[in-house]
Amino acid sequence: MPKVYVAIIGAGGVGKSFISQLNSYALRSKKHTISTILISRSSKAILSRDYSGLNLATWESDIASSSVSVKPPSFPDETLKFLTSAPGPVILVDNTSSEAIAAEYPRFLSSGVHLVTPNKKGFSSSLDLFKAIYAASGAQNGGYVFHEATVGAGLPVLSTLKDLIDTGDEIVKIEGVFSGTMSYLFNSFAPLSPSGSEKPFSACVAEARELGYTEPDPRDDLNGLDVARKLTILARLSGLQVSEPTSFPIQSLIPKPLESATSAEEFLVGLAGFDGEIDKVKTAAESEGAVVRYVGSLDVGKGEVSVGLRNFDRGSAIAGLKGSDNIISFYTRRYGERAMIVQGAGAGAEVTAMGVLGDLIKVLERLK
Ligand SMILES: NC(=O)C1=CN([C@@H]2O[C@H](COP(=O)(O)OP(=O)(O)OC[C@H]3O[C@@H](n4cnc5c(N)ncnc54)[C@H](OP(=O)(O)O)[C@@H]3O)[C@@H](O)[C@H]2O)C=CC1
Ligand SMILES: N[C@@H](CC=O)C(=O)O
Ligand code: NA
């Protein structure tokens, strides 16, 4: 069987689930032998220098006792050299949220390394980086790039958008709930059928973090930027030239006095002092017979994006969401008034890792 080499940077919530799913896949695969040659966390890494492959059953203890790292200055040059010296195709899996790693994607891709990632930074920061990634991937001998889990975690959002566009449909509007964290917060704190024992907003934020739904720093969810990044990715893939994820108005849920918090921990402690503020928003919606939810919308024709809180009728699909569910409605020329809808868990380690592994399998299927 042909041998394929996998290098994994980032082994937190998503990364751990990914390694476990990859291990099971490798044992089942009858088409490829998979050799994992690198696993890296923020300060420590393990490498299979002879390319024979790491032991995926013991990687956690192996990495804990390792004295190696792939931090700068060994990243990116030495890492790239190590990967491009492998005796077969290499797939880099970036399970971090690092902007610095994303900035190097064009170099890895133009050297023929394939890339799969749930990290939104490369595709939603500057438009130049987004274009450079796709240019490097499309160049002769460039690696493939897939990033399904950057929007809606494992839900088939980007593949659906690609199919719609490739088959000649026209995207009119994409809207819905794009954040697993925001969905969990509002479904828990302002549910459709309140029991009276709902926890305060700040306690729900702590729970969302515990459950692995938030970004490494939950302020990146609460300030609306995570949703803005997802809409930037959808807008760019729909052909709009969005220069930055901050190019349009974003409603932040970070209380003004907490904008200067110096750490996520300090922010979370301070947030409890502002539960009354968001309670008022919830009560105002209830007094209109509605529920409040955090949503995003992309109007492709008008080139407009909006991100923020909106009240929803209690009978609407958005009001009835549960857990960390996302709901993404594609309005297109062919589908007309009745949108094509993708719905389900939009955050969590296992469902995100599934999206990343699905992308890795897409690369395997394309290898000669
Ligand atoms: N959680 C979710 O539901 C979803 C997450 N995503 C995306 O998946 C990615 C990972 O999220 P998640 O697993 O939750 O985050 P975690 O914080 O749990 O994990 C991040 C991992 O990246 C490692 N890391 C950070 N910086 C570097 C670096 N410079 N070099 C090497 N390793 C580094 C961390 O190291 P260390 O272990 O040492 O801290 C950690 O292992 C993010 O981009 C996120 O946006 C996308 C969809 C859903
Ligand atoms: N923090 C994000 C994770 C997935 O992108 C979310 O809550 O949706
Ligand atoms: Na997805």
Automatic annotation (TrEMBL):
It comes from the Eukaryota. Gene3D superfamilies: Dihydrodipicolinate Reductase, domain 2, NAD(P)-binding Rossmann-like Domain. Belongs to the homoserine dehydrogenase family. Its cofactor is a metal cation. L-homoserine binds at E215. Pathway: Amino-acid biosynthesis; L-threonine biosynthesis; L-threonine from L-aspartate: step 3/5; Amino-acid biosynthesis; L-methionine biosynthesis via de novo pathway; L-homoserine from L-aspartate: step 3/3. Keywords: Amino-acid biosynthesis, Methionine biosynthesis, NADP, Oxidoreductase, Threonine biosynthesis. This is Homoserine dehydrogenase. GO terms for molecular function: homoserine dehydrogenase activity; NADP binding. Residues 10-141 form the Aspartate/homoserine dehydrogenase NAD-binding domain. Its EC number is 1.1.1.3. InterPro entries: Asp/hSer_DH_NAD-bd (IPR005106), Bifunc_Aspkin/hSer_DH (IPR011147), HDH_cat (IPR001342), HDH_CS (IPR019811), HDH_short (IPR022697), NAD(P)-bd_dom_sf (IPR036291). The active site is at K230 (proton donor). NADP(+) binds at G10, A11, G12, G13, V14, G15. Catalyzes the conversion of L-aspartate-beta-semialdehyde (L-Asa) to L-homoserine (L-Hse), the third step in the biosynthesis of amino acids that derive from aspartate (the aspartate family of amino acids), including methioinine and threonine, the latter of which is a precursor to isoleucine; production of homoserine leads to a branch-point in the pathway as it can either be O-phosphorylated for processing to threonine, or O-acylated for processing to methionine. It catalyses: L-homoserine + NADP(+) = L-aspartate 4-semialdehyde + NADPH + H(+). NADPH binds at T96, K120. GO terms for biological process: homoserine biosynthetic process; methionine biosynthetic process; threonine biosynthetic process. Coiled coil: none annotated. Residues 156-361 form the Homoserine dehydrogenase catalytic domain. It is an enzyme of class 1 (oxidoreductase).
